[in-house]
Specification:
- The protein is mainly beta and 54 residues long.
- The chain has a single domain, classed as 2-Layer Sandwich (Alpha-Beta Plaits), CATH 3.30.70.
- It contains one helix and three strands.
Length: 54
């Protein structure tokens, strides 16, 4: 079987800041390690989320 991410592996995802809760709900099996907000302009802020596969 081919897997892209081994147990304990990490992935970084960039989402709109207001979608962070939806991302956590949809990422079962992953543990959030950290997140960082990046201001782009006006009302546009992106959130970089690092998740670890459990």
């Amino acid at each position: 079987m081919f897997t892209l991410l081994r147990p304990g592996g990490r992935v970084a995802i960039i989402v709109p800041r207001q979608e962070y809760g939806s991302l956590l709900d949809a990422s079962k099996g992953f543990k959030p390690l950290q997140h960082h907000d990046i201001y782009v302009h006006k009302s546009l802020t992106r959130r970089v989320v690092v998740l670890k596969l459990e």
